[in-house]
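Chapter review: from sequence to fold.
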Amino acid sequence: MQKGIIGKKIGMTQLFDEKGMVVPVTVIEAGPCVVVQKKTVESDGYQAVQLGFGEVKAHRLTKPAKGHFEKAGVAPKKTLREFRFDSIEEINVGDIIKADTFAAGDKVDVCGISKGKGYAGVIKRWNLHSLKATHGTGPVARHAGSNGSIDGARVFKGKKLPGHLGAEKVTVQNLSIVKIDAENNLIAVKGAIPGAKGGIVVLTDSVKA
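The token string follows.
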């Protein structure tokens, strides 16, 4: 990993490219992020940096969290994320990382928490088929069907059943950055990304680029 930043999903809009074609984009408020901690192989067994994003009042933090920020000498941040960059020699605690760490045309992976959709049936959750809605199938048209063989006398692991849908960590890979607004800390990414408006997302350079 070479680059990364924490951001907040603003919403979707559209831009026009140089050929006049409409490009659907998601706007992300990316940074500014401050380096709160620097981990090295000698002290922690691996190298990484911890970035902080978003303002928070000090009285809302626990005492250990307050001490963590006081040790770093930075203002309290609402969100902390760790990034394992390939090289951290030139990064120091207190450095500011802004949206211009990326550039238009870069490929990125975007990670966020998907929208929670509560308890869902097998059709919505797993895209299973329903029965035809005629001749008495109504009461069971959307049911899961058989749970498996009688010999097992149990439900086998991996069986697709109703349950909680969404509200889980999702990563969308290999998205293109269409535009960077460094002055307002905005990044426009082509396509949709996980989560609701206002949700926290993490952008890193794509592993497939």
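Two observations follow directly from the output. The first strand starts at residue 4 and ends at 16. The chain has a mean pLDDT of 91.
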